[in-house]
Design a protein that fits this description.
The protein has 233 residues and is an alpha/beta fold. The protein has an eight-stranded mixed β-sheet with strand order 1-2-4-3-5-6-7-8, with helices on both faces. The two termini are 26 Å apart.
Length: 233
């Protein structure tokens, strides 16, 4: 499949991205939002995005500031900065189609938080995190907020306005983003057109172990392709 490397501006940062083309021309309408951590990368989800491209769905995967090939320092970033960067990434997508967002961990929080502006047709979450209100400007240092089922989370407020299709893939033994967070998203997604939850026997780092588990990988890929095919229709 054809890929295209690019850099795009987000505030005072330049973010590195990869467009995974589906071979039918035009810009993609799917964006992947990765999670927090020094090793977070735009490349770890290619096992998902390549399959979506084979089924006709192009995508953008990129790195937030302070990660990978993007500019910036991770410890100087914050949820508020990443929100701006998320909106800059969505602006790279096909303007003629409502976007679909795939978010991992913190990326799921961000996908839900930008619902009022972006109005995505679908959101797929992997090991979703949610952070409390008031944590938006805290830098990603030792004092950063921790994920939890926080009732006032901006992510839950955002998902409360979501009217598209929601898919959640989560590990039953997640010790970073407690499984109760999934319940928070489901309980607040009252306007969603559909909600599907897939529980897996694993921990928080889904994209590390799922590629090496053929049965679970096939199950998730099949669900994801079906989800993207139907989202927004």
């Amino acid at each position: 499949m054809e890929t295209e490397e690019l850099f795009f501006d987000a505030g005072d940062q330049k973010l590195a991205g990869t467009l995974v083309h589906a071979g039918r021309g035009g810009r993609p309408s799917i964006a992947h939002l990765h999670g927090l951590g020094a090793t977070a990368s735009r490349h770890t989800v290619r096992y998902l995005l390549d399959v979506l491209a084979e089924h006709g769905h192009g995508s953008l995967t990129f790195e937030y500031s302070g990660n990978g090939d993007s500019t910036g320092v991770l410890e100087e970033s914050s949820l508020a900065r990443r929100r701006v960067e998320t909106l800059a990434a969505v602006a790279q997508l096909d303007p003629g189609e409502r976007p679909l967002l795939i978010g991992g961990s913190m990326g799921a929080h961000l996908a839900a938080w930008v619902v009022p502006e972006v109005r995505p047709r679908g959101i797929a979450m992997f090991a979703p995190a949610a952070y409390p209100a008031g944590a938006e400007d805290l830098p990603f240092d030792e004092g950063r907020a921790r994920a939890g089922n926080h009732p006032g989370s901006p992510a839950f407020a955002g998902i409360g306005e979501f009217e598209g299709d929601l898919l959640i893939v989560a590990g039953e033994h997640d010790q970073v983003a407690p499984p109760a967070i999934v319940g928070g998203y489901v309980d607040n997604a009252r306007k969603a057109r559909s909600v599907e939850v897939i529980w897996l026997d694993g921990d928080h780092f889904v994209h590390r172990w799922l590629p090496d588990r053929p049965v679970d990988r096939a199950r998730v890929l099949d669900a994801l392709v079906r989800f993207v095919d139907r989202a927004g229709r």
